[in-house]
Amino acid sequence: MIDLVPVVLEGHGVRLEPLERAHTGALVAAAGGRDGQIASLWFISASDLATGREQQYMDVALQGQQAGHMLGWVVRELTTGEIIGTTRYHDIVPEIDRVEVGYTFYGERWQRTHVNTACKLLLLTHAFEALGCQVVGFRVDNLNARSQQAVEAIGAKRDGIVRHFQARRDGSARDTYIYSIIASEWPGVKTRLEDRLRRLLPR
């Protein structure tokens, strides 16, 4: 059974540091402030950071961690030392060695760079090789095409679409794309991520 505790994960130009309430201001800044581009993506949870609900956002993350079904990090980019985003394990099911990765965002200038690949390599390596997970899952809103592409690019398999799955913040019902990587697929996914990083990392 997996045992999740806060831990620093570092490599490939980024460091994932355990999420703390003291990080709130840095995450608001990474989201672009109250008028930033994250606010326009109303269907992702990080939009709370740009619309004046940052304390609610932090409450959900930290209470989820205390309850044992979430584990959050901030993402620090090491060439600048700046906090540029956040990510989490969530919907943790220790009894079957399952975690999901989500609640991820990066500041606009770091999107479509090496950062997401680096973070996913760190998170997946920790999940499969340190924690002994048998599966890592991902859930993506059907409106979030960019995240669907990113999850598919790392080698996750689409398990299916759960229609009318949950309510969005505006009250509309979202369809959710479900993806996963199982332990036997991890070596191939790891190689794919490492190859991708070699192409993306600044030279």
Explain what you see.
The chain has 203 residues and is an alpha+beta fold. The protein has a single domain (9-197), classed as 3-Layer(aba) Sandwich (Aminopeptidase). It contains five helices and eight strands. The protein has an eight-stranded mixed beta sheet with strand order 1-2-3-4-5-6-8-7, sandwiched between helices. A hairpin with a 4-residue loop joins strand 4 (82-93) and strand 5. Helix 3 (115-130) packs antiparallel against helix 5. It is globular and about 40 Å long. The mean pLDDT is 89.
Instruction: Give the terminus-to-terminus CA distance.
Output: 40 Å
Low-confidence stretches: none
Please, how many helices? 5
Largest sheet: 8 strands, mixed
Biggest sheet: strands side by side, in what order?
A: 1-2-3-4-5-6-8-7
Order of helices and strands: EEHHEEEHEHEEH
How many runs of DSSP E, i.e. beta strands? 8
The CATH homologous superfamily is called: Gcn5-related N-acetyltransferase (GNAT)
